[in-house]
Sequence to fold (379 residues):
Amino acid sequence: MSTSTAEDMPSNTLPGVDPADQPLASPPPGQTANLAHPASNAYHAYITAAICIFLILVFSILRIYSNVYIRDHRTLDDYPFMLASVCVLVYISLVVALLSKGLFGTHVWDLTLGDLRNTPFLLVLLLESLWGPFVWFIKLSLFLLYLHLFEPLRWIKKVVWMGIVVTGLFYFSITVAKLAMCAPRGSQTYIMAFSTARCSRAKVLGVITGAFNIVSDLYLLVIPIPAILGLQVSTARKRGLLAIFMTGFIAVIASILGIVYRIKVNSDMDDTWKIVPFYLAVLVEMTCGIVVICMPAMAQIARHRGRPNPGSVNRANGNANEQATSIPMTNLPTFAGLRTKLSRGRSRHGHRCSDDSRAQIRSNSSSGKALEEMTALPE
Fold:
């Protein structure tokens, strides 16, 4: 990412003014420099950060509640999800810390040479380096969620593991490359390191990373679609499931905005101002990733709250009265019933089930029950 420094910016030299108080650039036509009370758009990031933290905490707590008190079952994706949530909160905190330093979020012509300090550039390098691994942890959680929900489908396993390996290698490789290009060497300060031609070439890596991020987000968005369309449930149920996972489309939009603003930061003289919208897009994308991972748990909570109080059911009449006071079973896609039908079909025709049939039979496992809970909402 490009950042303005004393070496790569034209200065508006004022006679009789201390060099440290010289502005970094001349204002464009129609603009007036305000060195004493510069304008700042950092408050946009503060508001966005507060909203993102609220959403992450609320959805994470609800997911934990669903897994511990409703399902009473933990899955493999729970652990990377907790790590991803912490990583996003750390990233948000670092963005707020960066913008609170006063350098970024201000027009470049409202800054002086004396405003350039090492700490903001250190934070920028830290954010650029952590972004790849943190985003991968989010995608890893979503990949493992797919693996859990659609485990019986063999092709899901293949595309999920391929996605995990490819995205992991890419994001960590990009992180190493950015550190190699922009980290200080020898006696260099962070300001000096960011001013080198070597670090300027990292702009291309930023654009490549943004493009790959869009492709990987679309990849994650598309994976569950054929699996959901293949489920033997009503059309309304399929639409409900698709709606749950299509919330990830917001993350795709945020990724597109992220690469747009990254290009603007790289090419615009006023990059200290334009960097704020870029970080807003990054925060929204990360938060959407966390929310999407929590959506199946939200469906389980909604289903749980729709159940009647067991104490109100007349146990003397057994299951008949219980079903009469419960949610109509016609609204519930039963994988057990599907398994029975497939088994009977195999007995009547006397041939082996296909891979898809065996997958549907195995869907009565924990992954099948998880899907059942997700689709058991009123139509």
In short: Residues 16 and 353 are 88 Å apart (CA to CA). The longest helix spans residues 271-305. The radius of gyration is 26 Å.
